[in-house]
TrEMBL record:
The keyword Transmembrane applies. InterPro entries: DUF6867. This is DUF6867 family protein. It comes from the Bacteria. The chain crosses the membrane at residues 12-29, 41-57, 69-88. Coiled coil: none annotated. Keywords: Membrane, Transmembrane, Transmembrane helix. It comes from Labrys neptuniae. Residues 9-112 form the DUF6867 domain.
Length: 117
């Protein structure tokens, strides 16, 4: 029986997509922000990472590597984790390096400091 999120089993989905792929997506987003890369470059890296995650579903667990539906499911999850990591790291960098110009505005953003401060 196939479901909307996983094709193998819930354990394989959590292990491969969320834990392994999620950790790699988090580190990829963090590294891209550290090198001041733009979103299209990050998107490209995360597409390659999703191909690797699909391979890990297929090779040891017998999933279908070329399933377009499950590729998109994995891609969306990995993109969300990668973009979250990217924004967290970028906000930290902007406030850390340019603290005289920017202040923290939530966990994912920054804003310009007012001249009254």
């Amino acid at each position: 029986m196939e479901t909307y999120l996983y094709e193998d089993s819930p354990f394989v989905f959590v292990l491969v997509t969320l834990l392994m792929g999620g950790w790699a997506a988090w580190m990829t987003g963090k590294a891209s922000a550290s090198t001041w890369s733009r979103y299209p470059i990050l998107f490209f890296y995360l597409v390659l990472l999703t191909m690797g995650v699909r391979f890990l579903h297929q090779a040891p667990f017998g999933g279908n590597m070329f399933s377009p539906y499950y590729f998109v499911v994995d891609l969306v999850i990995i993109q969300l984790i990668g973009l979250l990591s990217y924004r967290v790291r970028l906000a930290k960098q902007m406030v850390g390096k340019y603290g005289w110009m920017f202040q923290r505005s939530g966990a994912l953003g920054w804003s310009a400091r007012s001249s009254a401060e």
